[in-house]
Specification:
This protein is of the alpha+beta class. Helix content is about 35%, strand content about 40%.
């Protein structure tokens, strides 16, 4: 039982720590500019760190989307 709780706690901690919310001063300008160019109608962006890349969650109209960019502004996925 205690082993299971430990594993669950470790997984929860790893999940929480893996996505670090970022303020705009921590987002590379190239990534922020690439987002604005690729999604000109994107609103309410929220940035987080995904390993060495940068994920932005935003609204595209009424649809919630996310996109992944590297530090140089290269779009990786939506």
């Amino acid at each position: 039982m205690s082993k299971t709780l430990f594993v669950l706690f470790a997984l929860a901690t790893a999940t929480i720590c893996s996505a670090q919310k970022l303020t705009m001063d921590k987002v590379p300008p190239a990534a922020a500019n690439a987002f604005k160019q690729k999604f000109p109608n994107g609103s309410q962006p929220g940035w987080s760190r995904e390993g060495k890349d940068f994920e932005v969650e935003f609204f595209n109209g009424k649809k919630r989307q996310s996109a992944l960019f590297d530090a140089t502004g290269k779009w990786l996925e939506t």
